[in-house]
Design brief:
Blueprint lengths: L12 E2 L2 E2 L7 H4 L3 E4 L2 E4 L4 H6 L21 H16 L2 E7 L2 E6 L6 H10 L4
Length: 126
């Protein structure tokens, strides 16, 4: 997955170093790997992969340099996420369109801690 346009470098790359390294988002943490449905894609143009050709070790396993716990049991996590989305989708309804983006809202009661956390946080927006 290309996180920036092909003709540009990441906007957070300063002097060939990540300027937000300690606060970088999850997609950057596991880059050059990108979960994609049942597969994990590899950006083979990544300088770390090209320079050292060290994505996999001699056993064909992912090298520790690129390993991240977020990739463990990836397919199981993906299936649980899909089940969760199906569960909440019964109570999600169209709300509005802003800047060509459709917005939806959750219309229901839930015991799900994540939904309640998000609903609680939204009370701070006006």
């Amino acid at each position: 997955m290309q996180l920036t346009p092909k003709d540009k470098e990441c906007k957070f790359l300063k002097d060939n170093r990540c300027s937000i390294y300690n606060e970088r988002p999850p997609a950057c943490i596991i880059y050059p790997l990108t979960p994609y449905f049942d597969d994990i894609l590899v950006d083979t143009t990544c300088k770390a992969v090209v320079k050292n050709n060290n994505l996999f070790n001699n056993n064909g396993e992912l090298n520790n340099t690129f390993y991240h716990k977020r990739l463990e049991n990836f397919n199981e996590k993906r299936l649980r996420s899909l089940e969760w989305v199906q569960m909440i989708s019964k109570n999600v309804v169209y709300f509005d369109t802003q800047n060509s983006v459709e917005l939806y809202k959750f219309n229901g009661l839930s015991e799900d801690k994540y939904i309640n956390m998000h609903l609680s946080s939204l009370k701070n927006f006006s």
